[in-house]
Amino acid sequence: MRILFLTPRFCYPLLKGDTSRVYHQLRELSRDHEITLLSIAERPVSPDEYERVAGYCKRVVVVPLPRWRTLWNLGTGLLSKLPLQVSYYRIPAVQEHLERLLAEEEFDLLHVTLVRMLPYVRSVQKPPVVVDLIDSLTLNLADRREQVSGPKRLAYEIEYRRMRDYEQAVVARYPELIVTSPADKQALGGRDGITVLPMGVDLERFQFRGAEGRDSQTVIFTGNMGYHPNEEAVLWFAAEVWPLLRSTHPQLRWQIVGTNPTERVRALAQPDSGIEVLGWVPDVSEYLGRATLSICPLRSGSGIQMKVQEAMSVGTPVVATSIANRGVGGAPGRDLLVTDTAPEFAAAITRLLDDPQTRACLGHAGRQFVEQHFQWEQHARQLTSIYERLLQAPQ
User: Cα–Cα–Cα angle for 197, 280, 287, nearest 5°?
Assistant: First the structure.
């Protein structure tokens, strides 16, 4: 097939869930299909980054999104009925490039990543469109609005209602939609034609590691720290759980690993706090492989949590909230530990710190779970089946 991908972020480096998903989709699909990529980029793409992606594509077109444009889009978006997350990515040049590509080449399929890019394909009649929503932003916002109050609550409520109406229109219009978890599918109405296609894990990069070489007193959190649910999770854990743990394990260390830590997150790394805010690291698998256990204390969010999958793949036992496990679907007590209150979260961590055998069992079970359910090769085969189904349907 000849497939045109349309994405809101350039898919390298792999700093966010959606960029990692697109990168691995391109890598796997390029084995059997011809790919053209049209992508927005909020920052300059280096030659090395470009080449890492271009190797999987026949053609790559990158459209810069300057800061002034995002500010303009947000300002004008306040007067629109569109969600701000959709208005944010409006660039006339993207529409021009898309129309030029469709005029110059005959594509079998148009693959659109995230709801934010759908205004560009509103008038496209051919080729047929597959929409990879990844997650339901309505579900994401529904969780987040419950965690705030005052003016923030009003802002989240407005965006929630706009996104709810927008996603409902998307569900009604496009026959083939993709999400990462059953919870996201349910939030979108659960109809036929919404396929659950989980994130994969690069099993070679995130190789299993046993107990040897691990730090005996290190807890780790990984993820893009510019993502609000991650910041919220870290701040909650620092305020509600960490003091309980330090009172019984004064030598315990907590590493926060991930790009774009906010000022509030950086401020956690006080002397004698036991907290290290490392920011971006070249290879997160190295840090996961040395940690005693991984935490994912999300209070809001949607989609599948790659941080949980990657820790499981490395064999690092995970303690997570039910929201974090909502997209992963691991069996509590077998694949990971799941709990939601601060005392229970601290107790679960303490249990793992004091019980090497339980850590080992969870580590092996987690790796097996990932191997069975989250391989990118499986993902690509399922994605190809979705394409074929759409192409065979009456147009």
Answer: 80
What is the arrangement of strands in the sheet containing 194-196, beginning at the earlier edge strand? 59-64, 34-41, 2-7, 109-113, 129-134, 177-179, 194-196
Helical pair 137-145 and 228-236, crossing angle rounded to 10 deg: 40
Contacts of 320 (CB under 8 A, 6+ apart): 295, 296, 297, 298, 305, 308, 328, 336, 337, 338
Tokens 């927008």 belong to residue:
166
Q: How does DSSP classify residue 123?
A: T
DSSP secondary structure letters along 307-350: HHHHHHHHT--EEE-HHHHHTT---BTTTBEE--SHHHHHHHHH
Give me the percent of the chain exceeding a pLDDT of 90.
85
Tokens coding 305 = 């949590």
Distance separating alpha carbons of residues 50 and 225, to the nearest angstrom: 24
- Bridge partners of 34, per DSSP, are 2
pLDDT-derived band at 8, boundaries 50, 70, 90 = very high
Q: Rounded to an integer, what distance in angstroms lies between the CA atom of residue 5 and that of residue 141?
A: 26
Which candidate, 225, 222, 295, 224, places its Cα nearest to that of 263?
225
Whether 229 and 140 have beta carbons less than 8 Å apart is answered as yes
Q: Is the dihedral of CA 166, 172, 173, 176 positive or negative?
A: positive
In whole angstroms, what is the distance from residue 143 CA to residue 301 CA?
6
What's residue 151's pLDDT?
82
Smallest CA-to-CA distance from 112 within 389, 325, 386 is with 386
The predicted model scores a pTM of 0.87
- From 83, 321, 261, 283, select the one nearest 202 (Cα to Cα): 283
Alpha-carbon Rg of the chain, whole angstroms? 21
Q: How far apart are CA 144 and CA 139, in angstroms?
A: 9
Region of 223 on the Ramachandran plot (φ > 0 left; ψ -120 to 50 alpha; else beta): left
Reply yes or no on whether the pLDDT at 302 is more than 80: no
Mean pLDDT over residues 320-337, rounded? 93
